[in-house]
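In this section we walk through a basic example: taking a raw amino acid sequence and producing a predicted 3D structure, encoded as discrete structure tokens. The instruction is simple. Fold the sequence below.
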Amino acid sequence: MKKKEFDILRKLQSGGVDSKYLLDIYEEFKNNYRIKLNLIQHPAFPVETALNVISSLFTPDILNVTKNKRANPFVRKKCEIEFTQRYNKIPIGEKISLLKRAPLNLIEYFINEKDVNILKVIIDNPNCTEDLIIKFVNRDRDKIKLYNLLIETDWIKNRRVCYAISFDKEAPIRIWMEIIPNIEFKRLKEISVKSSLHEIVRKRINGLLLKKK
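The resulting token sequence is shown next.
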């Protein structure tokens, strides 16, 4: 059995098989987890059958399928949805482990995440983009947790991120002092005349404006 399983898995990876062959393999080995997992990621495997299999997969494997560009887009999307539906029931340690390697299309689901440990993992994820960071900045709650994390990263030097933060009325002074050098002259002038601006921040901006003239 082990040799036959190995031969089937190798053939699935090599390609050159049609839907009928794949369905025949599925019917014969539907209780074999490894073969089933590889079958649903094969581009020629019937989508309807693959969609019915996804709920029986382990969560780490579901995450892997979402990243597999060889798999059918509908299968990958179904895995995304399945992952998000399971998310709240996953222990915090496993969440951290999974989100460390989650693709961008998956971590985008967690814009409103509150847990600071999860936020840190998402921000540090190599698939995280400036657009995603800006979406976090533009959310309407738990900004302080986010800023406390961002200030320890290079994202706080990103011009687009700094520009987005400059519109946040709740941005703390510590963040302002970090982002001011990375905001363009025109935007600094707009900010400097706002009556709600903290005087420490205004003084820092005016000093920088004088230097840039």
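Looking at the output, two observations stand out. The chain has two domains: 1-89, 112-213. The mean pLDDT is 90. In the next section we compare this with other chains.
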